[in-house]
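dumping this here before i forget
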Amino acid sequence: MLQPPHSSLQVADVPPQRVPDRDQDAPWHTEAVCRRDEAGLFFAPSKEPTAARLSREEAAKRVCARCPVMVECREHALLQPEPYGVWGGLTAAERRVVLARRRRREMELKKTARGTIAAAG
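structure:
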C-alpha cells in the first residue's frame, strides 16, 4: 500500500489516547477525533476515481465536524500550508480558496491603510 504524502506527520498514525480535560500545554492534535479513524479516509490513494474521492472527502468531513479541535486543525493546515488531505473539515482545494481570500483581504486592508495615511498626510 502506498503511503500518503507527509505520512510521518499524520495524527491518524498515532495510537488513540483520550484526555479527559483539555490540557492547555498539550498539542491540539491529542484530542483530534481522526486519531481513532483510518488515515486513508483523510488522504487520497493514487488514481482515485472522482466519485470515490468525493465520497471519501465527505466521510472525512463528517469526522471533522464532530472534532473538538477542528478549528485548530484547520488553522494548522492553512498556516503550514498542508498540500494534501482533509484537515479541519477542508480539502486541499478548499484550503487554497481560503488562503487566496485571506491574501486578497490582506491586500485590500493594506491598500486601505495606505490610502488613509496618504489622506491624513
